[in-house]
Write a structure and sequence with these properties.
The complex is a heterodimer. Chain A is mainly β. In chain A, a hairpin with a 4-residue loop joins strand 9 and strand 10. In chain B, a hairpin with a 6-residue loop joins strand 6 and strand 7. Chain B is globular and about 105 Å long. The chains are: A mainly beta, B alpha+beta.
């Protein structure tokens, strides 16, 4: 089966956890829903496109960033918070009864390298490549301000792994592939949603976050350049 | 009815550990009777809970907290230590004022709620204790006072008034029995309030789930909702489903009532927000832009069961004070810590029990890491990597949360395993704690070392501490690069330190004053802190010239950094410059 392999780099990234409102905690790697979202945004998709993903990566350190957050106290606002810091002679104010601000901590991953495999129908993969080559906006993953540098995009052949191999990257591996001996940090990652009662109800994928240099479990895949692949479905 | 409570995000794991601790405590102290002995069972994936035990939990919850934070116990411990000191005549004056203050403060709190003539009498008599010969009367008054605060009613009231604002408020704000309006409640009143706000909803929701499954007609369903008419979530539902058939009701519930985000199979009538778990939640009506499509009804659906489990989080975490900031800016903050690892629930429980015991023994943080690391029996090195700490300080009023998430990378686990004991030489304790915090965060502890050195210059401290800190930082950097043999690099650091000592002796011989050393140390430290190599080397060359000594080629590392980084070169030398009585200490360290 063919897959599109992306090698990405982000100087900073925050893949925010769903509950983390007052402190933005981050996942160690982007969850599937985030990667799916980036691809759908690239394609300007207005509905779900079936695909399988494999997410691996490393980061150097975790940092703490102290940021000003804006809180909307009303649904309808008479003004929108425009940040004009640093622009000369620009005045901007907003109604304190509508918007408040508070500084909050954000956890950031620093120097993130990602290896992502996308398996989808051939024409979809071609469309993604086209979108990468002719994108009209910057690429970002996670928060809008966390820019992505695409270091490589390549169509690769993926087959089942037959021999023994160790992981070169940290990775999300679906829990059903992990045996009891393999130690991992368990996460329930969002994948895709249905709108129920006005909010998104997510389909969850149980994965283990495993560190590199362990033995790959059975039932995983490998691409033509020897990179392991752990599809989430 | 049995429900499964699966482990998940850290806050729910905290709650599950707390729930189990309370259950265990209740069983041990006869609060939860034998018939419920199997109602909370540990499973690999979490806890299996028999809901029959729920009504027993509120009492066990409060009694657990009363014992854990007993004001009477802490006051008596403090007074006992004062009694030891006050017997010595030279301490009398100082200690007696502390005793008076302590008894007066607590005594006034008691009198606010309870009329106690004998206590008023004690407070009055205390005023006359002024001289050392009154010591035996004083001890008599103290004992009388101890008897009074050990009165169950008094201790209950004082302790409730302590742990509610100090511990629980930072987790839940002012909800239910934590609201200031409920301050006048007595012990039983608290239990009742807990039952009403947390247990009743769980029981109602679970019966509702069953009723939806098993009802054979819409009349049956409507009758059920009618009997629970006083429960808010059912009121609205009753209006909605009044004219529907049973199939339509089922369909309505499936498509209109969300499922819980933490326990996925439960219906969610609540919402994850500030009052459910304030360290990371925000109030939904003041933060529309935090939820998808500005939804304000229920942006993060939560079941009553998850809400109840989260209420146990303060008991599942370990609570301790930690100093943050340096010197004058030090602030003592109350932190809650938790050890999270991917293991069976039994193991998480065991690790956290271990952690809380160590904290009670006032073990420094780094010891905990190494002990925890070592306590893992024979798990592979890989497992070590999957131990991570999380600790947070949260202030409800200022809406501020600091959350540190320490993930222990491989090289650090190895480092702590082999060298953690060395860190004991970094004194005072605050610097050691900070040093370790920085390292665990993946940050460079060099800033702690700068402050530490400055402190040593200013207060003319002379300990082996700064040298050890420099050496350990360098070792950690080596570990990070994958170097495991420390002998060569340690020699280099030690050579620089020795150079510093020699220069110190030379300066003191020629000028016979400490002052000159101090001023040079300041100058070098400023250069090092600013990363100004040129300035540092310049000052260094001048010192060597004035001392008429050959300069060692090892200092070239400050420029090319082949074997040592600039900060290590500078700080090791400065540490040597500040050393005076190092001989025995150094031998001790090397031994």
């Amino acid at each position: 089966m063919k897959a599109l392999r992306l090698k990405l780099f982000q100087e900073t990234a925050c893949y925010k956890k769903p509950f983390a409102s007052k402190v933005a905690e981050t996942y160690p790697l982007p969850p599937y829903s985030t990667v799916k979202g980036m691809i759908h945004a690239l394609l300007n998709a207005d509905q779900f496109i079936p695909m399988r993903l494999s997410v691996q990566g490393t980061y150097e350190e975790k940092l703490l960033d102290y940021q000003r957050y804006y809180f909307f106290k009303k649904k309808e606002l008479s003004s929108f918070p425009l940040v004009l810091d640093g622009l000369a002679r620009m005045e901007f104010s907003y109604d304190k009864n509508e918007i408040t601000t508070m500084p909050m901590y954000t956890h950031l991953l620093h120097n993130v390298h990602l290896l992502i495999h996308i398996e989808a129908e051939q024409h979809i993969l071609k469309q993604i490549i086209h979108a990468i080559e002719y994108s009209m906006t910057h690429y970002s993953l996670g928060r809008w301000e966390d820019l992505v540098r695409i270091d490589e995009y390549k169509l690769v052949d993926v087959q089942e792994l037959k021999e023994e191999k160790t992981l070169q990257w940290n990775a999300y591996i679906p829990s059903n592939l992990l045996d009891r001996e393999t130690k991992s940090i368990p996460y329930q990652l969002n994948w895709k949603y249905e709108i129920v009662n006005g909010i998104r109800q997510w389909e969850k994928i149980n994965v283990g976050y495993v560190q590199k240099e362990i033995e790959a479990p059975e039932g995983v895949w490998i691409d033509e350049d020897g990179e392991l692949v752990f599809y989430h479905l | 009815m049995k429900v499964k409570l699966h482990m998940g995000e850290w806050m729910i794991n905290m709650g599950l550990v707390g729930l189990y601790r309370v259950f265990e405590y209740g069983r041990k102290n006869g609060i939860i009777s034998d018939e419920y002995k199997d109602s909370v069972t540990v499973k690999p994936w979490g806890i299996e809970l028999d809901t029959d035990v729920l009504p027993q939990l509120p009492k066990a919850y409060f009694l657990y907290l009363l014992e854990e934070y007993s004001v009477a116990r802490r006051e008596c411990e403090r007074l006992d230590s004062y009694i030891e000191q006050v017997k010595k005549e030279e301490n009398f004056k100082n200690v007696v004022s502390s005793i008076k203050k302590s008894i007066n403060d607590t005594g006034k709190k008691v009198l606010k709620y309870f009329p106690y003539p004998s206590l008023e009498d004690v407070l009055e008599k205390l005023k006359d204790v002024k001289k050392a010969e009154h010591v035996s009367q004083l001890i008599g008054y103290i004992n009388e006072f101890k008897t009074i605060i050990n009165d169950q009613k008094v201790n209950e009231k004082l302790t409730l008034n302590y742990f509610k604002p100090a511990i629980l408020r930072s987790f839940f704000g002012q909800v239910s029995f934590l609201n200031v309006a409920k301050n006048n409640l007595d012990f039983d009143g608290h239990i009742e309030e807990f039952y009403k706000s947390y247990i009743v909803p769980v029981l109602n929701d679970l019966i509702f789930e069953q009723a939806i499954e098993t009802s054979r007609s819409s009349e049956e369903m409507n009758a059920f909702l009618e009997t629970h008419n006083d429960y808010q979530p059912f009121k609205q539902l009753k209006r909605e489903v009044r004219k529907k058939t049973i199939e339509e009701i089922r369909e309505y519930v499936r498509t209109n009532i969300n499922k819980c985000l933490l326990f996925n199979e439960r219906v969610a009538f609540y919402n994850f927000e500030e009052m459910v778990f304030s360290p990371i939640g925000v109030a939904k009506d003041n933060a529309f832009n935090f939820s998808w499509h500005f939804d304000s009804q229920q942006p993060k659906p939560l079941s009553s069961l998850a809400k109840l489990v989260l209420l146990f989080a303060p008991i599942g975490s370990t609570i301790y004070y930690k100093s943050e900031g340096i010197n004058e800016q030090t602030e003592r903050r109350l932190y809650a810590g938790f050890v999270q690892t991917d293991a069976t629930f039994a193991e998480i429980l065991q690790k956290n029990n271990h952690f809380s015991q160590l904290k009670k023994k006032r073990e420094p943080f780094n010891k905990i890491v190494s002990q925890l690391v070592q306590s893992v029996k024979k798990e592979s090195e890989y497992t070590v990597d999957h131990l991570f700490f999380l600790e947070f300080f949260s202030d409800y009023d200022s809406k501020k949360t600091h959350l540190h998430y320490y993930h222990l990378p491989m090289y650090l686990a190895h480092y702590f395993k082999q060298h953690a004991d060395k860190l004991d030489y970094i004194k005072p304790y605050d610097y050691r704690e900070q040093f370790v915090q920085y390292v665990l965060r993946g940050a460079d502890p060099v800033y702690v070392i700068y402050n530490y050195l400055r402190d040593c210059i200013k207060n003319e401290r002379s300990t082996i501490g700064p040298y050890i800190a420099v050496q350990e930082r360098h070792r950690i950097l080596q570990f990070k690069k994958g170097v495991r043999d420390m002998s060569t690099t340690d020699k280099r650091v030690s050579a620089l330190f020795m150079q510093g000592r020699e220069i110190r002796e030379a300066i003191i011989r020629s000028s016979s004053s400490e002052k000159k050393v101090t001023s040079i140390a300041y100058r070098l430290l400023n250069a090092a802190k600013a990363g100004n190599r040129k300035n540092f080397m310049d000052t260094l060359l001048r010192i060597y010239m004035s001392a008429d000594r050959p300069i060692s080629p090892i200092f070239l590392n400050a420029l090319h950094e082949r074997d040592l980084d600039f900060a290590t070169v500078a700080n090791a030398f400065i540490a040597g410059l500040l050393a005076n009585q190092y001989k025995e200490e150094q031998e001790e360290v090397q031994a």
